[in-house]
Amino acid sequence: xxxxxxxxxxxxxxxxxxxxxxxxxxxFPRPVHHRIPNFKAFKMARTIKVNPDAPQKNARFFVLESKxxxxxxxxxxxxxxxxxxxxxxxxxxxxxxxCATSQGVRNYSTPVGLDSKxxxxxxxxxxxxxxxxxxRIGKGEGYADLEYAMMVSMGAVSQGTPxxxxxxxxxxxxxxxxxxEDHDLTxxxxxxxxxxxxxxxxxxxxxxxxxxxxxCEMMEKIPILRSLRHREEQAGKDVTLRDGPRSPPGAQATPxxxxxxxxLAPPELGSxxxxxxxxxxxxxxxxxxxxxxxxxxxxxxxxxxxxxGPQHRAFLHYRDPAEAQRxxxxxxxxxxxxxxxxxxxxxxxxADDLGGGHTAEPLPDHRPAIAGP
Length: 373
What we know:
Blueprint: H1 9-22, H2 40-44, E1 47-50, H3 57-65, E2 69-73, E3 82-85, H4 93-99, H5 102-107, E4 109-112, E5 122-125, E6 129-130, E7 136-137, H6 143-153, E8 163-166, E9 189-191, E10 196-198, H7 216-221, H8 223-234, H9 261-264, E11 276-280, H10 288-297, E12 304-308, E13 313-317, H11 321-331, E14 335-336, E15 339-340, E16 342-345
Parallel strand pairs: 1-2, 1-5, 5-8, 8-9
Antiparallel strand pairs: 2-3, 3-4, 6-7, 9-10, 11-13, 11-16, 12-13, 14-15
Helix pairs in contact: 3-4, 8-11
């Protein structure tokens, strides 16, 4: 099946989706997955990133079964970039298959932070269409392209990191080069039920986040983007957003270039600027150690933490209001356990309001410390 001449990306997507539906090819798993364990790049890799979609469930299982490190992006990047899946000790094949499902990813994962220094040896992405030249079309939401760009920004991948896509033979089509953009991710290998295609693609992969393609709405929905943008702005890079006026590299963000963290925090009437953040609605079974790991992964470690488990809340104490506001921006939509926690700027607290919690003073050298059981 070849796409019609003069088509758009969406035309190609719909043509392939319609064909797969008519031929009953949309069911998974597909027989392609038996090729994964014998794939040379897979054998050599130690840390593999696989996208979280259902079609790649068996790919995730084979990574775990081969005792390799599996990294899975968080769905729609709502709570970070990706998680490391850690099966329980002595896990059977049935347990590993559960770990490879969306529910398993939630139950057996820990967040990987921006400072983790993780190195990804192989990237596995899904595709709606892909050409033998390595040009790829996704679902149109841009998450695979963005995930890769974010991994470049944190030093997890390089131009030499192999990118593989797993598709049905009918999804391998000619794609006009005119449809490609600089931020589009290309692939080095294509696995289908009948063959392994080495694309030899020489088109450069994204060299980082193209901030001019990022909207303010995306910034609000994806907290880790805000952290990365802050870092790159501090490094003097131009981080002007798609719907914001151009600013020179190193310029400070203004309300016109992006929605400020203050706008993301509910106003506290009658209070003065606070450097503490209240996290409420904590699930009953969540432990302080889980909160610590997640704060570290998101790059918003406080100077002190007051844990009030019986009240289902915690207070994060930062050195100044600006740090507190940045933490609120990064934690919007943050999930811990089964539910979304409430994150607000704390009203100034009396000493007895913070009683009954576990707390600690900053370390003598003033490095951030998190205290709690």
